[in-house]
Specification:
The structure holds two protein chains of two kinds.
Chain A lengths: L1 E6 L3 H13 L1 H5 L3 E7 L3 E3 L18 E3 H4 L5 E4 L2 E5 L4 E4 L4 E3 L2 E4 L4 E2 L7 H4 L6 H13 L3 E7 L9 H15 L6 E6 L9 H13 L3 E3 L4 E5 L4 E4 L4 E3 L2 E5 L2 E2 L2 H5 L8 E2 L13 E3 L4 E2 L6 H20 L11 E6 L5 E6 L12 H18 L4
Parallel strand pairs in A: 1-2, 1-9, 2-5, 9-20, 11-12, 11-17, 12-13, 19-21
Antiparallel strand pairs in A: 3-4, 6-7, 7-8, 10-18, 14-15, 15-16, 22-23
Helix pairs in contact in A: 1-9
Chain B lengths: L8 E5 L6 H10 L7 E6 L4 H12 L2 E7 L4 E6 L2
Parallel strand pairs in B: 1-2
Antiparallel strand pairs in B: 2-4, 3-4
Classes of the chains: A alpha/beta, B alpha+beta.
The complex binds flavin-adenine dinucleotide.
Chain lengths: 379, 79
Amino acid sequence: MHRIAIVGGGTGGTVLANRLANELQPELESGEVEVRLITADRDHVYKPTFLYVPFGKKTVDDARRPIEDLVDRRVSLTIGEVTGVDTDTKKLTFADSSILAYDQLVLATGASLDPEAVPGLAEGGHHFYGPEGAEALRDDLAEFTEGHLVLSVVGVPHMCPAAPVEFTLMVDDWLRERGRREDVDITYTYPINRAHGLQSIADWATDLFEERDIDFETFFNVDEIDPDAEVIQTVEGSEMDYDLLVAIPPHAGSDLVTDAGLGEDGWVDVDKHTLEATNAEDVYAIGDIADVPTSKAGSVAHYEAGVVADRLASRARGTVPTATYDGKTVCFLEAGMDEATFIEFSYGEEPFVREPSKPLHWAKLGYNESYWLTARGLL
Amino acid sequence: MTEITEPDVTIDSKDATCPGPLMDLIGKVKTLDQGTVVELQTTERNSTTDVPEWLEKAGHDLLEIEEHDDHWNIYIEVN
Ligand SMILES: Cc1cc2nc3c(=O)[nH]c(=O)nc-3n(C[C@H](O)[C@H](O)[C@H](O)COP(=O)(O)OP(=O)(O)OC[C@H]3O[C@@H](n4cnc5c(N)ncnc54)[C@H](O)[C@@H]3O)c2cc1C
């Protein structure tokens, strides 16, 4: 039997498992192939929901569904944490010391948050990148009526490069709706010499920030935070006071990857078109854990899953895989509480940012609802 | 090579796209002592303008930018 193991039941792993269930239906039914999805959490989490939690528009429960309900019944599901990958003997080790052999492996373990990497950040900063952070921010934001709100992008790369700009534009609008904007100063900070990594988004955001009286600081790399004095110190030697700090924390890959020799810094080194690991045979990586030159976004995980499903299916059937990923990335961007824009680009392309509109905002909310069909492999 | 271009630390950011090389440099410089000479290897043309701009802002010295066939070596002294 040809054994395909997928580690991680987030966006990438779930879409991939369901795609394979379709593509390899006859082989799965005859028992020639096994597709096994291994994931640490019983629930699948749709992280884009967290952007709406601080504003009371969604709850963290809206972001979760049991993984069992999303995965095709032809996929074998294991709930467990993988603690070791041996790419020579082609075996996975679990936290309970059990072992699983594979013929082809896909890592889709995502990115994790590492606020501890910056002194004072965990104590002094809020974030909306995880369930507890988003809820704590919601509670403090509800009581925040005056002072200096700082949105600081501390870690690059991070999940969803658009989210910090979206949050800043949304909080501006939300405070206006509540009649509080005049009592709150808003500052957005970014580590490089413009407001975003992509020039066209930086230009778009800079114009909107100026229009909406949002200050922004560039070349702002947070070195440490004094949570008692409520001061941010930067590597560049500047200081900024805050009353409410919303920070995008540094992100980390996985020790699993480093220990397996698949990538020195915790992200899997892959060929950006085939998504095959550079340092091992029969290993792929998709989603945030894969080191490819585009955004850490769900749409990327989704398109990569489609490509890798084709490649795995070809290999399982003994044919030569030909599907490749061209870097396609699609993002909706909220420009306030009721308007949004949309971008689409591939490797090496600069996206074109459309004029924000209400229909695009509703399209983003609609997509968020239909996401559960995407995860099932239906969209 | 001149004496100036004998680095204490080399950062290989070849093939990383913008702003990867600059972020690699910023992350590393944070951990280095004054006087350390760093060589940043980059294939990203933007680094040849972004890096000097950041050095100016952060108060470190640009020693030299060396152009090779397929990449640049940017030499920096930490202040
Ligand atoms: C606030 C926010 C807003 C966002 N908005 C958008 C958006 O609008 N559009 C967009 O495209 N993207 C957005 N994203 C990014 C998107 O959520 C991620 O890029 C996407 O989830 C990546 O999918 P993934 O499969 O790589 O990882 P994940 O979805 O993070 O899943 C990883 C899975 O691996 C499991 N796992 C990890 N380690 C192990 C292990 N050792 N053993 C077993 N299982 C393991 C985890 O339990 C988890 O289930 C947003 C992210 C955030 C935080």
